[in-house]
Amino acid sequence: MSIFDLIATLLVLTALFAFANHVVLRLPQTIGLLIVGLGASLLLVALQIAFPRIGLQETVTTYVRQIDFRATVLDGMLAFLLFAGAMQVDLTRLKSRALAVGSMATIGVLISTAIAGIGFWLIAGWTGLSVSLAWALVFGALISPTDPVAVLSTLKTVDVPDTLETDMSGESLFNDGVGVVVFTALLAIAAGSSGHGGEGGGSLSQVAELFLVEALGGALLGLVAGYAAFRMMRAIDDYPVEVLISLGLVAGTYALAGHLHMSGPIAVVVAGLLIGNRGPHHAFSDLTQRYMFGFWQLVDEILNAVLFLLIGLEVLVLRFDLSFGWAMGLAIPLVFLSRLVAVAVPVLTLSRFMPFMKGTIAILTWGGLRGGISIALALSIPETPEKSAILAATYAVVLFTIIVQGLTLKGVVLRFADCD
To answer: Of 142, 82, 74, nearest to 112 (Cα)?
Structure first.
């Protein structure tokens, strides 16, 4: 199939499944699409088992395999989804919660990486899987950051108090970029120690340097590029051109960050925060503001729908061994525990200096959804003996957090939050 055929097929399936969800399931669109896509995949597997001569599953799997999920997410959708999400965040509220958001997005990710990584190493040993500590920490890194796409799409369906919403959305936007940096560093160490194309183990100072260059460099790049685009938009009043400038800002900044070995996710988040908060007050006319935010909201909704459908269909490509069953099941409570500690430590420490809403720990823990980014990072691991087990555990955690936690988050908010 050509690239156009693949895109056409994806859009047709997304439209049909979205319609089916809206009419029959009536679930939040992204979660509904994931469930419908997963259900369709499992139905194909069942039909293949019942009627092996049809070969329908193999045909569909061949088409799905042509879609490079990792490249589609990390090198395609992610930049636009992060920018669209960042544009909707109130920068004033985010500044007031900067210490909490920053702590959870950095220290929290590191704590979660350590707990999930060491825990997965112990689980692998107990279940007879061959996963070294270095590769288990890679799993901890890719599963620790909450997925901004999943979190922000779920927040649209749940009435969360403003302070909590700022904490959740801000953390998910920034810990994604931090998580990718930590994953990159640990992947280099693991690949080097196992002889799979890495550059060597790397010292702690080298890892710290990589973190600083990628994270802080990405933030600086996003600030410079965002300000340049803002000045261009301010100089004109022509909404088609201004929307085009925003598209060029996202694509150009993300691509340049990759070439400069900086964090593209952090760069586009910073640029999105700048445009989304300064633009309406200093650069956009009322007409431009309506088209600009309307355009990026549509981009967000459409790409979200396609991404969650892809997550559901990806089960056709990911062939899981039955021996991974215990590891997949135990990875879910392990990641939940790592998330709980990663949230509780910063919140309890900072609660002496700043206020937190009632139920913050419970809601942030349960609202820590994982999504396509974790799967994409797992797929980017070289072909090592550990990859299959890591991928299986990642997919199990992603499905559980999106379907179970995503659908019950509203109940958790009503149970724990003090909305008065």
So the answer is: 142
Q: Are the beta carbons of 257 and 219 closer than 8 angstroms?
A: no
Per-residue pLDDT tens over the stretch 198-212: 444 455 566 677 777
Report which DSSP code applies to 21.
I
Measured in whole angstroms, how far is the alpha carbon of residue 414 from the centre of its chain? Answer: 25
pTM above 0.70, yes or no: yes
Q: What is the pLDDT of residues 31-75, one digit of tens each?
A: 999 999 999 888 888 887 788 777 777 778 888 888 888 888 988
Nearest to 375 by CA among 62, 29, 77, 111: 77
Of the candidates 84, 396, 356, the one whose C-alpha atom is nearest the C-alpha of residue 243 is 84
pLDDT of residue 47: 82
Sequence length of the chain is 420
Residue-level pLDDT at 197: 52
Q: Do 311 and 333 contact (CB within 8 A), yes or no?
A: no
CB 94 within 8 A of CB 166: yes
Closest C-alpha to 351, from 93, 99, 89, 92: 99
- 106-130 residue pLDDT tens: 999 999 999 999 999 999 999 888 8
**Secondary structure (DSSP) of 357-401:** -TTHHHHHHHT----HHHHHHHHTS-S-TTHHHHHHHHHHHHHII
DSSP classification of residue 292:
H
Alpha helices in 56-132 (DSSP H): 56-65, 69-72, 78-87, 91-96, 98-127
Cα separation, 285 vs 59, in Å, equals 51
CB 293 within 8 A of CB 87: yes
Residue 405 near residue 154, CB atoms below 8 Å = no
Euclidean distance between CA atoms 363 and 175, whole angstroms: 17
Number of H helices, E strands in the chain: 19, 0
Rounded-to-integer distance, Cα 62 and Cα 70, Å: 17
The tokens describing 46, both together, are 């069942």
